Structure formats: structure tokens, C-alpha cells
Amino acid sequence: MTTIESSHQKLSAERARLQAALSTLGLSRQDGAAKPWRGDQTTAVAPSPVAIVQPKSSDEVMTTVQWARRHRVPLATFSSGAGPHARGLTTGEPTVLLDLSGLRRIIDVDECDAMAIVEPGVTFAMLDARLASLGLRAYRPLMPRANKSVIASLLEREPQLNAHAHWDVLDPFGAGEIVFGTGELFRTGSAAIAGTMSEQMAAGVRFLTAYGPAGTDFLRVLQGAQGTLGIVTWAAIQCERTPAVERAYFIADNSPARLTQLLAWMHWRRLGNAAFLANGQQLASLMKPGATGVADLAVRLPRWAIWLRIGHGGSEFPQEQFDCELEELQQQAAEYGLKVEPALAGMPADALGQVLQAEPKDLYQNRLLCAHRSVFCLQQLDRVEALVSAAQAVLAQRGWSATQLSVYVQPRLQGRNAHVEFILPHAPADAARASELAERLAHALQAAGGFFSRPYGPWAPMAYAKHLALQPYLRQTKALFDPDRILSPGRLCY
Asked: How many CB atoms lie within 10 A of CB 323?
């Protein structure tokens, strides 16, 4: 018998064992051949999950995890009932998927404290619809797809447009509820006291994160863990108060150097309630829904531009505050030889702002050529230009047109660092070539100083190889929270 035949037999036997175990679970499930879990960033051929389990409550999530421990069943989670996903969700072995999209309650909204308590199936559109009448809105990443889970976005540490409100890596998380791989239920922050949620709310508890030198908040451990340690069943989310006066602007240049300096200054001065830097290709991809529109607009836009939004509200003089902030920004931009403009190439900055508040059904990165690969890392703003140069060199070496490269730079943590993302649009037929290029690009970015705090797929071994001393501690963490290794086994270095 060949090695391949033996491997197929083992996989078939394992799938049969899991199917038999499923008969004892007693929860709603569907055939794993349905593919809401697949993503266009999946490069390997992975087996379909054995089944998709659809819990409707925290208790059912806990029941499923406890069942998985007893039967040694690998579990992976996702929060959107349908794709497209940026990345696939399989683990390369027979797996049962946990579909959390049925947990879609907005449990409570506190207008006074600007906080909402949501379950993992709640999307940005659902949350904003509930918040609108209260003068609130969700803090958002860039252009989340229509069915993107708010909690999943925060757990993945997707960068927010509002870096001025990003004081801590946990923001805007408050307290939350977790089912660990042990099957135990745990509440974090101020929710980690006696009583049910209803009893705590009746007593006036605000579900905040833990602070202070003795404060421990395990949501921090789950952020970036890609579902390998626990499952969040609800979380309190800090929300943004909708400004009374709000306008958006562009500041353009032919290179990122002066723009990154200005961005750093803006965040030092706390100017603007949202801002990011992008090249022309990226701006066109955000603004136009079709391939022709993206290509036409990209050639008319400047090579680089900051998009920023200034907003004020909740005070007696919002217009006066807005005017002072805009004037200070215009003066500083002029010192860099730059100009604050309401539109570029006939594209109003306010129009882009409206687009960013909507959720497309598709992934905006696919608009030009129907598919894409992306590579992203963290770096300080003053080193962004070096990463751009490294990326362009890789593209030139591989014969890839630099004009197809989209670049998105999102300041984080009050501008202390930035998410730097390179997006490679490609035709579906070029998937293998694009994947190979993306892997080379990741190595080049790491060599240029990029830090991969969210390593996916082939980046994970590369990122953790640079931190060998850390790996034993990560494995100990896995053993503590998921001793039977049932949650997304093999996805990270442990």
C-alpha cells in the first residue's frame, strides 16, 4: 500500500468516526459540503468539514466544546453564515465547523456610556441600524463586507479607521464571555463577578475591561489567536458618538514620505476622527464597484493620498471646533508643501466617507481582477516608505506590474504604529503565481522590518521562526486553555 493510499484510508476512517460522534451531539447541523467557510485566500486544497454545527446560545456553544473534548473532535469557528471570506477556515484535517452566525442578538445598548453588548453573529450593518437613533455608530475597519462579524473583526485585530480613539490594543472591546477549549465558561473584566448578566445589569454594572497592574483580561489572549484558544459568545463594544459636524478631505503627494510625516503629526495633535494613507490604486478600488471604473479612476488619481475625516459633536460649539481644527491642519500641511483638498480627480472625499460607512457584498479587493492576495504587517509610520520600496522591488523581480499593487496604511494606537497592507489583484487563473509572489513579499517585508502580529497560513511559520524563545510559552498557553488541542489545531505554531 502506498503512503498516499494509507493517508486516504486514515482520513476516511477519521471522518467516519466524527460522523458517528455527531449523532450524539443533538444540535442543528448541516452537511460540510456547503462552503460558506471557504475563502479566496485559501491556497491549499483542504478537505470539506465533516459537518457544520449551528449553536443558538452560549449554552449550546459550551455543550459543543464539551462534546468535542469527549470525542476528540477538532473544531473551527466562523461567524458569517455565507462568504466571501478573506481566508479559509479549515485546518487540513477532518474538522467540525462551528457556525456562530445564529448568535445574532444585540443584547443591550447603553446610550449614556456609548456601549453595546453583541453576540458574534452581529454585523456592522446590524449594529449601526440599532445605534443610529441613539446618536451612535460602530468603530469600523476599512470597508467590512456585508456579513462581517463585529466581534470577529475585533478578535482578528483588524485596524480601525479611528486611530485617535485607539488607546489600547483591546479597544474597543469591553468585557466579554468566553468558552475556552476546556469547555468552561469565563467572563472577563467587570463581568467576571457573581450573578447572571441580567442581575449584573440590574445592579448597574458596566461591562468594562480590566485595568491596573493586577488586571488580567483573557480577551487579550484570544485576540489574534485565530480561534485556537477559545470562543467569544458575547462582548461589550465601545461605540463612537456621531459628530454633529463632519467633513472629509484629501491630502495628496507623489510619494508617501511627507504624507507619513503629516499623519504622525496629525495623531500627535489628535486632529481628525479618522484617517488613512493609500495609493491611487487602493483609493480607486474603494470608490468604484466595477473593474472598468477602478482602472479609469486609478490613472487619474495622484500616486498617494491621505483620506481624513474631521468631526465634532457633543459640545456647545461643534462648528467652531471643526473650523479651528481644519485651519490648524491646513497650516501644517502647507509647511510640508501639501494642500488639504475636498476632492481628487472629481472624487469628493465626503463621497468616499459615505462609501466607507456601507458594507459591500463582495470583497472590494476583488473588484479589479476578481481575485487577490494580500500581505500585511505592522511598522512605524516613518518606516513605511522602506516597506513600499521592498514590495516594489519584489514585484519588479517577478515581472509583476507595480501599477496593479494597492497599498493601504492605517495608523493604529494613536499613531504609534501602522498597519501596512499590500494587495495584489489577480485573475483567478493566476492564483498560483500570485500566491508565490505573496509569500516572497512577506519574506521581503519581514527582512525590511515588518512585524507580523497576525500571521496567516504560510506566514505563520515565517513569523514564529523569528521568535523561537516565545514558542514554548505559546504552547503552554494552548495547553492551559485548550488542553486537548481541539480548537483549530495546527493553525498557529502550537
From this structure: 14
d(Cα 276, Cα 405) in Å, to the nearest integer?
17
List the grid coordinates of 171. Answer: 479597544
- Contact status, residue 267 vs residue 284, Cβ threshold 8 Å: no
Q: What are the residue ranges of helices labelled H in 96-234?
A: 124-131, 150-155, 197-202, 219-222
Cα(296)–Cα(287) distance, integer angstroms: 11
**Cα distance between residue 451 and residue 459, in whole Å:** 11
Residue 108 and residue 117 in contact, taking contact as beta carbons nearer than 8 Å? yes
Sheet hosting strand 274-279, strand order edge to edge:
340-341, 245-253, 304-312, 274-279, 406-412, 417-426, 371-379
Amino acid at 154: L
pLDDT, tens digit, 9 for 90 and up, residues 131-182: 999 999 999 999 998 889 999 999 999 999 999 889 888 999 999 999 999 9
Distance between CA atoms of 229 and 486, rounded to whole angstroms?
Answer: 9
3-state secondary structure (DSSP) of residue 36: coil
Cα dist. 479→16, 71, 181, 473, 489 in Å? 27, 18, 9, 10, 12
Residue pLDDT, tens place only, 454-489: 988 888 888 888 888 888 998 999 999 999 999 998
In 366-432, DSSP assigns E strands to: 371-379, 406-412, 417-426
